[in-house]
Amino acid sequence: MTLDENALESLLGRVIIDLGAVTIAPLLAIGDHLGLFRAMADGKPLTTTELAGKTGTQERNVREWLAAMAASGYVALEQDGRFRLTPEQVAAFCDEDSPFFMLGGFQSFMAAAQHETREKLERAFVEGGGVGWEQHQPDLFAGTARFFRPGYAAHLVQEWLPALDGTVERLRTGASVADIGCGFGYSTMLMAQAFPASQFTGFDSHPPSIEKASDLAKGDGLAKRTDFEVAGAADFGGGPYDLITFFDCLHDMGDPVGVLSHCRTRLAEGGVVMLVEPHAEDSLADNLNPLGRAFYGASSLICVPASQAQPVGRALGAGAGEARTREVAVEAGYKHFRRAIETPFNLIYELRS
What we know:
The chain is of the alpha/beta class. 50% of the residues lie in helices and 15% in strands.
C-alpha cells in the first residue's frame, strides 16, 4: 500500500482530537464532582489559588485542570492569566436547568467505560448475551437522568405533547398516563406538574431508579398525582391509559414489538403512544456526523448490549431511524404512525391503534 500523506495527516489530526477528548472526559467528571465548574458559575475571573480556595482543592492540581479546560475551549483564559466561564460555558457545565447542560452525558459515558463494565462488554462482543442495564455502575443511571432532564424540561410540555392530536385537551381535563422506562421519573413529574387534573404512573424494571423517582416525587409534592412501580415494559399493569410514553428507551428494549403490542392492550379508546427517540436518519451514511458518532458510541456501549441481554434481543440501537421504528410499530399492529415533531436531538412519533 502507498500512503496518501494528506489523508494520513487528516486522519492523525482527528485522532489527536479524540486522544485529547479521552483525557478531558474524566477531568470534566472530576470538575463536576468537586464543584470546580459551579464555583465559576458567576462568570467572574478567578486565579488558580482563588478557585482552589473556594473548592477546598490543591492549587497545583487545579492549575493543571484549568489549563486542560482552557485548551479545550471549556474555560476562558483572560489576558491577566485568570480564568472565567462565559455565559455559554455556564449553560453547558453549570446550569442543570439549561437545555444545553452536558455534564450528565460525560457522567454516563464515564460510568459505561469503567474497567469492570468494559470487561462485561468485551465478553458480550465475543460470547453474546449483552450487558443488562442493571449491570452498569450507578453513575450511569444518575448521569442519564441528568443528561435527558434539561431537554425534556425545555420541550416536552411546551412542544411535544401539543404536537399529538387532542392529547393536551385530555390531559387538562383529566387523563391516565403511563410513562414506560421512566428511570428517575423526571419526564413523569414534568407532565404531572403541568397537568394537575391527570394521574401519572411511571414504570421501570430497575428497582433503584423507581425508588429514586418515588423519593423525588415526594420531595416535589407530586406523590398524590404520581405513582412509580417496578414493572417491565411488556407486562406493566393498570389502565386503560389515554397516553403511554417512551422517552429515549424503546430502542434499548429486547422486544420492542412485544412491548408496543402490550401497550395496545392498555390504551383507552382514542389513546395514543408517544415515542421519543434519538434523531437519526435511516441511512448509515447520513448519520456519519458528530451527533451520529455520539449516538452510535452510546449505543455500542449501552443500548445494543442492553437489548441483547433481554428476551428476543432485537437491538434496534440509537441509530434506528424512522423507517425501522415504523416497521416495529406496524408489526405491533398500529394503523397510525407519524412523526409528530422533531428537535435536533430527538424524533417524536405518534402511534394510534
